[in-house]
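hi! just following up on the protien thing from before. the input was this:
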Amino acid sequence: MELRIFTEPQQGASYDDLLAVAQATEAHGFDAFFRSDHYLKMGDVSGLPGPSDAWVTLAGIARETSTIRLGTLVTPITFRYPGPLAISVANVDAMSGGRVELGIGAGWFEAEHTAYGIPFPAGRHARLTEQLEIVTGLWATPIGSRFSFAGKHYTLTDSPALPKPVQSPLPVVVGGMGPKRTPELAARHAAEFNAPFRSAADSGAQFARVREALREHGRAAEDIVFSHAITTVVGAGDAEVARRAEAIGRAVDELKESSAAGSPAEVAETLRRYAEAGATRSYLQIMDLDDLDHLELIASEVRPLLS
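and the predicted 3d structure came back as:
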């Protein structure tokens, strides 16, 4: 099981906080540092110093790291037009030397849109479909050729389709639990499918739907990475687990029921259930970004149990 660190900086984190976590992620040998793409806090937290832009911060982190992969879970299509999104992601990929992955979704949190003057339209899944076709189409267009697209929501005419990412293709992550349209989008466009914050059984059922969609589109199941995301709280002992749970405003019993929480052995056993369901990659959602010792414990005590 490959372990990645996933953060939620809208809950309260500066760029320096994110950079420290990213550099600790790299130092402890994790595969990747990912962040959410949100502009408004959720729940009973201050959110200070305020939201940060996902691709701006990843650009900075790209220049301060050298091995870890970087990306979003996930960028809402409501935040950016597809052409400028393709440019931004390609730029950050170049800044990182080819280490970027684009997680992309339809967007769901209406309050962050109204808070910052961002339209929150109906028909977002149709817009997501068009954005995926445009972004991947722009990147795939040979240098010297032109790209045009005429859709219901977006039109591009005679685009030079520049710049190109370093990676070809740049990995696209699609996720969600929709039973039909989401697997179909993943089968058409994704290098990775992510089942976010669901049980191992539910994740496995969704993986099966994606595998069927892959077959329908002439792709092998091996063509795509199956992953999941899960809130993670690990402690060397009960007191440490309780302290880390309290720091993020959660109860230990509830975390053990719904997330990956407890001793290293307990957390490894939870992650093994996802591996048995078909996941080969785990995004460990770490909510307390000041607790860098947490990452060290996961790397030294959980990861060896999964090798």
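The chain has one domain: 2-306.
The domain at 2-306 is CATH 3.20.20.30 (TIM Barrel).
cheers
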